Amino acid sequence: MTDPEVLAVQRIAVTPVQRLIVALAAVHAARATAIRSLTLDDLVLPNRRITIAEHGQRLGELPYQTLLAWLGQRRATWPKTPNRHVLINSKTALGTGPVSPEYLKRHLLHQGVYLERICGDRVLHETLTVGADPLHLALVFNLSHTTASNYATIAQNLLDDQTGVGRDAAGRESGRS
Q: What is the DSSP string of 36-54?
């Protein structure tokens, strides 16, 4: 993500629910559908664990703090809701279903925040930091082997561009310097 994009996200994500959505995408690379589907049963707050899209992982500090803030607001606003989803609104608080895709769009996308861009940036950052290892990416972010390999290839190409090494389609060095 570019610096202006990061600043725009910081400027736009001001409410507890917006901050939580962005934190889950930025730290755990959680996709919109996974965030909407997240239930209270997916959280083990004392152990700082979260299960996103059936993938258990340690809950990062930023998502943990934003989750506590949102759950506090959620509890104060809808204290007797039967809904077990983490994200709820005035409509879903009366039932048991998740918020609609439009809910996320209204809170972020219509204001210029693209969750897929944040998720992709998080995965790419991880790839550049620990090396272009598709197995690591698949395990950490619960990605398919194809998606993990694509991220690894992109990261390797970026790293090669920085060092002046070229690679052919099979990933072998081509001798460019």
A: HH-BGGGEEGGGTEEEETT
Q: Are 18 and 12 in contact (CB under 8 A)?
A: yes
What span, in angstroms and rounded, lies between the C-alpha atoms of 59 and 52?
10
This prediction has a pTM of: 0.74
| 3-state helix/strand/coil string of 61-125 | HHHHHHHHHHHHHHHHHCCCCCCCECCCCCCHHHCCCCCCHHHHHHHCHHHCCCHHHHHHHHHHH
pLDDT digits (tens, 9 = 90+) for 144-154: 788 778 777 87
Encode pLDDT of 44-87 as tens digits: 999 999 999 888 999 989 999 999 999 999 999 999 999 999 99
